[in-house]
Structure prediction request, 331 residues.
Amino acid sequence: MRAMTFSGTGHPLGPTDLPPPLPGPGQILIRVRACGVCRTDLHIVDGEIADPKLPLVLGHQIVGIVEGQGPGADRFAVGARVGVPWLGWTCGVCPFCRSGRENLCDRARFTGCHIDGGFAELTVADQRYCFALPERYSDVEAAPLLCAGLIGYRALRAAGDARRVGLFGFGAAAHLIAQAAVHEGREVHAFTRPGDAAGQAFARQLGAVWAGGSDQPPPAPLDAALIFAPVGALVPVALRAVAKGGAVICAGIHMSDIPSFPYADLWGERNLRSIANLTRADGDAFLALAGAAPIAIRARTYPLGDANRALDDLRAGRIEGAAVLVPDPRP
Ligand SMILES: [Zn+2]
Ligand SMILES: [Zn+2]
Prediction:
């Protein structure tokens, strides 16, 4: 099967022909229909995430069709459509797993990082971590739900009942979470790169009541701010934008260093926290919401062989919404 393979930092992904993977016990073989490209893929390529397997097939927002079942893997029928997220395996016995926090599992293995992912024609996945997907979305539309949507939604949940929510970095995750937040009756404020008028118009179109550059203060203090951009300098900016008792939630897996800031910016019981990975319960909750509330998904597709171009466009901020790889049709 054809795959785009990562061999180490400093090398672009290379087209390779790999033997088709075999589903082990509890695993399903999946023919990939679409795979979203995530900023985490860039962090892996750039060497900012420790210990990926090498060589590696990236991609952790996989939509595909079950083509085979390993021993005991009967949760999904052959022919069923499934989604594969970032969380690929957990130990089930560590204190985190046993307290509903499998996202923090000490031994967690992640799709497209420790396990080969979806930048390929075929992949295998542990059926326990796969999701059925709402039928209203096409394969390409459903792909970005699986990380941008799902981990973005975990970040939104961490904001509690905050009514006035700010989103810093209006990319794949924010464009989905803005709509989820509006659906929940929240007021969305979108912060883009300064001067990104097109990004701000896009945010307003998706229901933001205000959109501006991250160099502008919001018209009124926020109850919570979610930071999706990998830019540590936004942390003190966001802290200054939230009201007393407000929360700043960093949703990405990696960020540049956070500059020092006066304690006064944190004072007033402001909270600062990160979001790490997802639990299967996050996936169930978000996919139920996405099934009930139509979310408009903006995706730009690339052929699988153009994975490097998709990564470059993501890095340069040239993508409105999400980038999704699509394997060539079967001959
Ligand atoms: Zn565990
Ligand atoms: Zn991701």
In short: The first helix runs from residue 39 to 45. The longest strand covers residues 27-37. Helices lie at 39-45, 139-142, 148-158, 172-183, 197-205, 234-241, 280-292, 307-315.
